[in-house]
Amino acid sequence: MRIGLISDTHGLLRPEALAALAGVEEIIHAGDIGAPEILERLRSLAPVHAVRGNNDRGPWGHGLPERLVLQRGAFRVQVLHDVKSLTVEAADAGCQVIVCGHSHRPAITRRGGALLVNPGSAGPRRFKLPVTIGYLSLTADSASAQIRHLL
């Protein structure tokens, strides 16, 4: 299973991001979406799971959960906006993968035995940080991630 990862669009869904996400089985948006239209456009590509970021205000944003736990085969995937709000290590909660955003810094690391993926920011460029998305690949017995630079 190949899952597209996107975060921190802040109301800007670049054509490069849409093209890079074409063909994924589903999309996870890790918050700071910026507008409900972003989710609608992403849903034209694949089913979308999204969490609320600190900038997702208003009725549409308050309707989004602060975190999600998704079961994908043998893997539990925890999705939240800011990894600093993770109060229990994901591995202790039975999660093997954590997807987060907020920092605008793409990263693939390990935390508490779980694969931690921040796809970076696909929206407006912040400082000199890259514009990126990510992919999560799940097989029967392994989880891996990749960052893709858009600009």
How would you describe the overall organization of this protein?
- The protein has 151 residues and is mainly β.
- It has a single domain, classed as Metallo-dependent phosphatases (Purple Acid Phosphatase, chain A, domain 2, 4-Layer Sandwich).
- Helices cover 13% and strands 34% of the residues.
- Strands 3-2-1-9-10 form a five-stranded mixed β-sheet, with helices on one face. It has a five-stranded mixed β-sheet with strand order 4-5-6-8-7, with no helix packed on it.
- The mean pLDDT is 95.
List the keywords.
Purple Acid Phosphatase, chain A, domain 2, five-stranded mixed β-sheet, mainly beta, 3 helices
What is this entry, summarized?
Helix content is 13%, strand content 34%. With 151 residues, the protein is mainly beta.
Known CATH architecture: 4-Layer Sandwich
According to DSSP, the number of beta strands is 10
Largest sheet, if any? 5 strands, mixed
Provide the CATH superfamily: Metallo-dependent phosphatases
Number of domains: 1
Beta-strand share of residues: 25-35%
**What is the tally of helical segments?**
3
- Helical fraction equals 10-25%
Strand order of the largest sheet: 3-2-1-9-10
**What's the CATH first level?**
Alpha Beta
Tell me, what's the shape?
A: globular
Mean pLDDT: 95
What's the CATH topology label? Purple Acid Phosphatase, chain A, domain 2
SSE pattern, N- to C-terminal: EHEHEHEEEEEEE
Overall structural class, as computed from helix and strand content, comes to mainly beta
